Amino acid sequence: MAVTEPVPVETPAVPEPRGGYEGILRRQSLRESAARTYARSLPIVPVRARGLTIEGADGRRYLDCLSGAGTLALGHNHPVVLEAIKGVLDSGAPLHVLDLATPVKDAFTTELFATLPRELADDARIQFCGPAGTDAVEAALKLVRTATGRRGMLAFTGAYHGMTSGALEASGGAHDVRVTRLPFPQDYRCPFGVGGERGAELAARWTENLLDDPKSGTPAPAGMIVEPVQGEGGVIPAPDAWMRRMRTITRDRDIPLIADEVQTGVGRTGTFWAVEHSGVVPDVMVLSKAIGGSLPLAVVVYRSALDAWQPGAHAGTFRGNQLAMAAGAATLAFVRENRLAERAATLGARMLGRLQGLAANHPCIGDVRGRGLMIGVELVDPDADTDALVPPPAPRLAETVRRYCLDRGLIVELGGRHGAVVRLLPPLTLTDEQAMAVLDRFADALAAAERAPHPRTDAGPSH
Ligand code: PMP
Predict the structure, then answer these.
(1) Residue 380 near residue 393, CB atoms below 8 Å
(2) Which helix (H) or strand (E) holds 11?
(3) Facing residues of 166 across strands?
(4) What's the pLDDT at 10?
(5) In which element (H, E) is residue 61 found?
(6) What is the rounded distance in angstroms from the CA atom of residue 214 to the CA atom of residue 109?
(7) N-to-C CA span, the chain
(8) Which domains does the chain have, with CATH numbers?
């Protein structure tokens, strides 16, 4: 059975470039910065795409389990997304409107609020941000610092919230954010060496103690920011009970709780928003990626009591991306109407099960974890001579697996503290057959990588 979608071929996507697709790749490596990332590990030139499938300029087709770093809830070029974008284009509506009200924006906000935890939605304000997740994170930090009059922030080991830092500073409007780093619970590499409920309990106690010890060196913070499932940090779901503890700890001390759902939102983890697993209602939610239906969009949603901002306290020229709002509203509605979060939960559990089966026969799989269709496979060196409780991570092996996956027409990314976690973020529209094909290709690549020679001792993160 075909697992790749037919991609439209009537019109060439781009004129034939000089030197063909190899010329494009060569020019990219000459012209683009040394900071480029995905382009290094995925030397392909996408020209067409549909659903799970990307077609390169060389005519090869790939199953895309990176999905724009978790952006494409409905895969590439889903018909409802294309229709929504065309609808705006055909309507003659202005494409650039700063932060003015428009019917498109109104419909997006209505649809978004309909999906949010009720308790928050009933009393929420929304700020449209510059269209990157990191800008919405900046907005959230600024918001809680304004509202509380405090400065420091609580964040967790392994967290990833974005890349900005200098722009505000250079504008003279910034006050450096002092972050206190707290232990994020993890079973496999538990910092307390116990894992499970006990490990999470110790992590929570550490946080509590730090806040209540007058000599801890941590003044009352402006907020706590947490990913309900750490993504870039290696696909580590926060235990539900621990999330509830964080809610209680922050509520009891008047500390706004910020959930960064940039990557976990819109059905990805098996509920529409990942906080729903624990029933926690945060004070602030940072949303981006999938809410724009593949186009750039980022917002921060928060309890109205926090809305202590002055006009212009957070701005940005591109806060009014009409195409993204239309594509986003269509995506949110499609995920809701078709219960794709539930689908992600069921299919994700099945995929985890199969990967766990694979782990039984491959000692280089140290851990398989995830939630919904946010899946991670941590690769390790099982033969390493170590006293540690678990074998050391194997980032070089992970790189080989990623490369072998690509050779087999499967796009995956790496993450985790050491770059040794193979990450699967397929679209929520993944069919059973496609899921099987993804796992078959992964298993094949893993077996080949195990046989291949690669340096055993690893030199740290790969990206
Ligand atoms: N928060 C989380 C949880 C993320 O995963 C990311 C991006 N991977 C960001 C924030 C930053 O988003 P962006 O890259 O759009 O700035």
Answers:
(1) yes
(2) none
(3) none
(4) 56
(5) strand 61-64
(6) 42
(7) 36
(8) 20-77+342-451 (3.90.1150.10), 83-337 (3.40.640.10)
Banded model confidence at residue 386, pLDDT cuts 50, 70, 90:
confident
Q: Which amino acid is at 436?
A: M
Distance of alpha carbon 238 from alpha carbon 275, whole angstroms: 10
Give the Cα separation of 332 and 345 in Å (integer). 17
Residue 173 has pLDDT above 80, yes or no: no
Helix (H, G, I), strand (E, B) or coil at 440: helix
Ligand 1 in contact with 160 (CB < 6 A)?
yes
Concatenating the DSSP letter of every residue in 80-122 gives HHHHHHHHHHHHT--S--TT---HHHHHHHHHHHHHS-HHHHT
Does ligand 1 come within 6 angstroms of the Cβ of 435?
A: no
pLDDT in tens, 34-77: 999 999 999 999 999 999 999 999 999 999 999 999 999 999 99
What tokens does 119 get?
């308790």
User: Which residue has the CA at smallest separation from atom 12 of ligand 1?
Assistant: 133
β-partners of residue 411 are 64
Compute how many other C-beta atoms are within 10 angstroms of the C-beta atom of residue 292: 27
Strands (E), 306-382: 365-371, 374-379
| pLDDT tens-place string over residues 278-295 | 999 999 999 999 999 999
SS3 294: coil
Single-letter amino acid code for the residue at 378: E
Would you state the pLDDT for residue 461? 43
Between the CA of residue 221 and those of 79, 145, 149, 236, 281, what are the distances in Å? 45, 9, 9, 25, 19
CB of 271 within 6 A of ligand 1: the answer is no
Ligand 1 neighbour 56 (Cβ under 6 A): no
Task: Determine phi and psi for 77, rounding to 5 degrees.
Answer: 50, 45
The letter for the amino acid at 295 is: L
Task: Please give the number of the atom of ligand 1 that sits closest to the Cα of 159.
Answer: 3
**C-alpha to C-alpha distances, 265 to 32, 97, 332, nearest whole angstrom:** 31, 26, 10
Task: Compute how many other C-beta atoms are within 10 angstroms of the C-beta atom of residue 132.
Answer: 20
Structure confidence by residue, pLDDT tens digits, 193-203 = 999 999 999 99
